[in-house]
Design a protein that fits this description.
Helix content: under 10%
Number of strands: 33
Distance between the termini: 49 Å
Structural class: mainly beta
Oligomer: single chain
């Protein structure tokens, strides 16, 4: 029997073959496909290719035929994976690391979540099925079920080349809780942490922040009640390989309350850095404004090694006109999508502005419903401009700039008026309401490009644009191209090899999926 080439072997071979790149590839008979079922094949932070998952046929009343297509970074087809499965399955999320692809399947009828991991040979490496209670199923559906075809759930995260981690909401008795799972890709093994077993507060949720070479780290928000204005932030970390809790520490110190947003692994060090907003130690986070941005450095034992604060009224105001409430003029609050350290030691924070504004639809629904807003909040989120902030090696702010774009808005669920701006931003992120698309960098972080979308009406063009903010050789440059579409059902953008982006378009009527490389100016 001939030995079958693995996907990795094919990718490695492509590095030595100077084949001409094709600009476009099309797939026919795509009966159903969602944006969240497409992704990138990455080697660490280096792009190697793409994958897409879709329905090809209805086999019978209970069964569909599915296809996974894997491409290299020139859009050449590398591998097809075909299989049949229950017609009631939905894909909540998919993710890739350098060892495997994992999909999170949800079956509403059977009340199950199934994690399925595929290897380079296209075969299933491992599966794990979780039965859901009715209350947990309702939480899952409220989290994922309302997504449109353009939603991106971000439920699964790749961790180095070791495996994947997931966080799902859980309802156990009177407690709203969460469950963390970790799945290895080099062995049929996984570990689970169920917070409800040791939970004291009535409501808590976990958000994945990132990983070091030995730890997976999450922020946990705890409240005595669901609508409580007293939210408390904790940091919890687990050993990747054993699943044992390494530490669980509060991020509320005597000096300030700290709410982390991003984790940054420090080059050549076992320590890691968290970046986020900070508040007065006696402040109420749901009500009071943040005081500025902070960075805390931790060691692997969960001890804070150092702290650095940049207040809105102090250092930041020298570069951005921020007020005492933590709002940048004409921009609002800032949500940070990405923080990275470049090879020259500098830190860059990629942010996007947002504001809490009155929702006309929420008000109208409330009036017509005699106080019942029909599931829509009286407040909505307005997404504003992009912001790039630059810091030196000691996290002193050294530069900042606002990149203007047109605003868009997102209606929020009922009760959102009581949530913190930070929590509302996390909801907006889960529904892909921000215009930020991605940050692309090389293995050594010598350069990077930030991509974001906009919708313009200017210079004879009305439509979507793709914009980049790039850093290379110590300089920052910008670029923009117009995105034209042939009336596709949906369009999404992904990072590509240097100088390009990938545009993916689905045409529901024609049952066709087009993927093309578009050259930047």
């Amino acid at each position: 029997m001939r030995k079958q080439l693995t996907l990795m072997a094919v990718f490695m071979a492509c590095l030595f073959i100077q084949a001409e790149a094709q600009n476009k590839i099309s797939f026919e008979n795509v009966r159903q496909v969602y944006i969240r079922n497409n992704g990138q094949v990455m080697d660490g932070e280096e792009l190697k290719g793409y994958f897409t998952f879709y329905v090809t046929d209805k086999k019978d009343r209970k069964t569909n035929a599915y296809m996974i297509q894997i491409l290299d970074n020139n859009l050449n087809k590398v591998k097809e994976i075909e299989f049949e499965d229950d017609k009631d399955i939905q894909i909540l999320e998919s993710s890739y690391n350098n060892s495997a692809i994992m999909f999170l399947f949800y079956n509403r009828k059977e009340k199950t979540l199934e994690y399925r991991c595929y290897g380079f040979d296209g075969k299933v490496k491992s599966t794990y099925t979780k039965d859901l209670t009715n209350r947990t199923r309702m939480l899952i559906e409220s989290t994922y079920g309302g997504k449109s075809e353009e939603g991106q759930n971000e439920a699964i995260f790749s961790v180095n080349n070791v495996g994947f981690t997931t966080v799902i909401p859980v309802k156990e008795g009177k407690y709203y809780s969460y469950e963390i799972n970790f799945f290895f890709t080099d062995r049929n093994k996984q570990w689970t942490f169920e917070a409800a077993e040791e939970q004291e507060d009535k409501w808590c949720t976990a958000l994945y922040l990132g990983a070091t070479d030995s730890l997976v780290v999450y922020e946990v928000i705890k409240q005595k009640r669901l609508m409580s204005r007293e939210a408390h932030s904790w940091l919890i970390a687990f050993n990747i390989f054993t699943g044992k809790k390494q530490f669980e520490v509060s991020t509320e110190a005597e000096d300030y309350k700290f709410f982390p947003m991003n984790i940054v692994t420090l080059k050549g060090q076992s320590e890691f850095m968290l970046l986020g907003t900070y508040y007065d130690p006696e402040g109420r986070v749901a009500k009071d404004a943040s005081l500025g941005l902070a960075s805390w450095r931790y060691n692997t034992a969960g001890k804070v090694v150092s702290k650095k604060y940049n207040s809105w009224e102090g250092p930041i105001s020298k570069f951005l006109p921020a007020d005492a409430k933590g709002r940048v003029a004409d921009v609002g609050y800032i949500y940070f999508h990405k923080v990275l350290q470049t090879e020259d030691g500098k830190f860059f924070a990629v942010g996007e502005g947002y504001k809490k504004v009155v929702s006309g639809l929420g008000l109208a629904s409330g009036i017509l419903g005699a106080g019942n807003s029909g599931g829509i909040s009286m407040m909505k989120l307005k997404i504003t401009d992009m912001i790039m902030m630059q810091f030196d090696e000691q996290f002193n702010i050294s530069n900042a700039k606002v990149y203007e774009k047109n605003s868009n808005s997102m209606e929020m669920p009922a009760g959102a008026s009581y949530l913190t701006p930070h929590t509302m931003a996390l909801i907006a992120k889960s529904y892909k309401a921000f215009d930020y698309d991605f940050t692309q960098t090389d293995k050594n972080h010598t350069r990077f490009s930030v991509g974001y979308s906009d919708f313009v009406k200017e210079d004879g063009f009305k439509g979507r644009t793709f914009n980049t903010i790039s850093y290379a050789d110590g300089k920052i440059t910008t670029d923009k191209i117009n995105i034209t579409s042939n009336k596709a059902t949906w369009t999404t953008l992904m990072a590509a090899k240097p100088g390009f982006i990938v545009i993916m378009e689905y045409f529901k009527k024609e049952k066709k999926l087009d993927i093309r490389l578009e050259k930047l100016n």
